[in-house]
Known about the structure:
Rossmann fold, Spore Coat Polysaccharide Biosynthesis Protein SpsA, Chain A, alpha/beta, six-stranded parallel sheet, about 20% strand
Amino acid sequence: MNGRVKLGKLQKRKIVFVADFFRDNLLGGAEANDEVLISHLEAYGHTVKKCMSRDLRVSDLVSNGSFFIISNFIGLKEEVKHAIAVGRIDYLIYEHDHKYVKTRDPSKFKNFKAPEDQIVNREFYKNAKAVVVLSEVCKGVIEQNLGLTNVHNIGCSLWSEQRLDTIDEYRSTPKYEYGIVNSSNQIKGTQEAIQWCVDNNKDYHIIQPSDYEPTFLLRIGKAEKLVFFPQVLETFSRLACEAKMLGCKLITKPKLLGFASEECFKLEGDDLVEEMKKRVKNALSLFERLIESQEQEVGDGETTAILTLYKRPQLLKEQIKALRNQSNPPKEIWVWGNAPGWNRDMVTNDLENCGADRIFNNDHNWKFYGRFAAAMLVDTEFVAIFDDDTLPGKDWLSNCHQTMQTNEGILGGVGCILPAEGYYGHQRVGWSHPNEEVQEVDLVGHAWFFKRDWLQYLWREKPQTWDNGEDIQFSYLAQKYGGIKTFVPPHPKAKPEMFSSLKGMEYGVDDVATSASRNHKVFYEERNECVNNAVKNGWKLVKDK
């Protein structure tokens, strides 16, 4: 974490929105996205000033408290980009294509990885508060080309809620089987779509574009199938998603469709409409948080990791190696050892070789709370605590740092969404049940990531029991006394390196697991009591919000 973004006091901002064109000038997908965002920010209370990229000058960047949103910026002068990147300018980039490569199309290169001499604007992207992209594939491509850690995927285009509410008005009984949008833009692949129909002996209908969006949607809705062969990597494709919301089947090149990299690609009709409503709402909330969180000179951005040593000492060195190899490694690694579940002499003798910076060689079993007490002694902004069966992927801590920028709260490897007051039965989210996006939960376990200062809340009330439920107690008291929520960072199925645990199903199911080694009924009765105590004393569950 570079320490640039720190969440601060929320307040309304003066926003300068920079783009090559706006909706009044051009009826393109990027301009439609931008217009929805601008309207939302204005309705939210921010003051938004539109600025054509070609008109922005260095003299306009004089610090006046404005926040800059940079949309398409081909018209932006090099000296202006440099001044923004190196100056004390609060800005984010809303990326609609691929302006970090000269071709503006990474699909021209093997595995979307451009040669170094084809990379441009690296400094501009790297120094942004955030880079917001439209799909998972685009997030991966820009990260591998620029090595960024400030990229956020919203997984959608932006539509107004009113537009999505009325999408069913534009559905109709298909009048023809194959439709092709007539576009003069070669990258939209009109001629390639026609050729496909010719080669496959398919009759097709040319759909003419329209300056009036409802008319265009009506025309698309008359096709049973939309033939669309983009010639570049489409960041999301508003057209493709609208076609599926209208009930059309897509004949396309999924590899070149950012939309196809999202789980929602399998949806259509009303199901897809509802999913887009949810995603647009989450996207707009992300923009709000990024804009409102101002930089503050607090915290060092560093992390201390604390490992738990009990009855699995054979895994210690593997865990330490995994932490040393993190893309954002901890400043120090500490080991909290509980007796008598491990050989103290073995740990003492091997300390110089195990790779830990500090070790607590206890002669007592302090169970679950001891390691959190040790965390009070760290001198870094963040703490990461791991169970003894948890082996993180190399990008887990980077994942936590990035999530903390947009969803500040207690983060964890497996989250639980509780179904009822006083009952621990739950829906699980995290490495065991992967989540593509940040998910708010009631509590987390297996791995924790949080600000050291929040530990004060854990000790405000005596636990229901010292033998169980530290995960419940921490989320309960942090919410009650600090207004702090609990989240599980993304665990994308295609990116195990972002996971909190890579071998949980192998390491966590042996006979020394607490839930297995103790009476199973007693173990869960204790957790039910912990939940009941927390709810009775003010814990608000996610299902009730």
